[in-house]
Amino acid sequence: MTYMRLLFMCWYQIVTVEAVREELYLSSSMDDIFIPVYANDPNLARIYIGTESGILRVYPGFFRN
User: Fold this and answer.
1) Per-residue pLDDT tens for 5-45?
2) What DSSP letter does each residue of 17-60 carry, written as one string?
3) Residue 64 — very low, low, confident or very high, per pLDDT cuts 50/70/90?
4) Phi/psi of residue 56, nearest 5 degrees
């Protein structure tokens, strides 16, 4: 059985699953920063952070009914 490394295609580069996984892990604590920033600035509607691999984190998230 051969192992194929999965790849994500971004706008301009190929990104490995490992790179995406690492960025998700590293950015997972961003809510600890987003919560007080968002709470203390009434002018903010959302906070957006984008990474090199194409991950987009949004606070607060989008909710569906």
Assistant:
1) 444 444 556 777 888 888 888 888 888 999 999 999 999 99
2) HHHHHHHHHHHGGGHHHHHHHHHT-TT-S-EEEE-TTS-EEEES
3) low
4) -120, 120
